Amino acid sequence: MTRTARDLLKTITAELAPDPRSNPLVPLIAAGRADREVLAALALEQMRVIPADRRAFLHLAVRSSAEPEADAYFTALADGEAIAQRRLPAFAAACGVDETRAAAYTPLPGCQAYPAYVAWLALNAAPADAVLAVAANFSAWGGYCATIAGALRTHYGFDDEACAFFDFFAEPAPDLDRTAERAVQAALDAGRLDESRARDHGHLLQSYEALFWRTLERPA
Q1: φ and ψ of 4, to 5 deg
Q2: Model confidence at 1: pLDDT above 50
Q3: Residue 40 has what pLDDT?
Q4: Can you say how many angstroms the Cα of residue 179 is from the centroid of all Cα atoms in its chain?
Q5: Ramachandran area for residue 98 (φ above 0: left; ψ -120 to 50: alpha; else beta)
């Protein structure tokens, strides 16, 4: 029986699902026990992550010019990052982050390892392999954002505008999921997909994601 892209995406997403213990910070936020300075650091780190990821996805789209399905997926991701970037300042402001503080902030290496690896994928990974790895990783990120959005309202008194950044990523994205599925299916049909390499990429993405949250919990 021929394996479909939908089956493969479900399988790899399940394989790469993070251990709940790998992210100690989101449960603290969910319980209202994370310090507001940690939330400020989250905003400051995301101010660097989001534009970096957008540029990486745009580069992957350019490299996918011979693979229109992958091109469409990475273009959609880049468009999403642009939306998120417009929503982020309200969260930062609610955390007490202004332009002066943002300019003086020194980013944490453990947080910036994730976008650095996304940039590595943009330069080095086969587009089809990157589609599979990134799509599998986004499942965990969306769940984290849903939890944070609820906690910011319940425990920290943030309004809808301040939570909009997390709301965006928490929302179901069926069109994006279908675009990823089409890109993976096209790669499978053409024999362009290296499942082993895609798994390796996905594993590293999840590892760097976990490092991001652990670093924020204990920045020192």
Answers
A1: -95, 165
A2: no
A3: 98
A4: 17
A5: beta
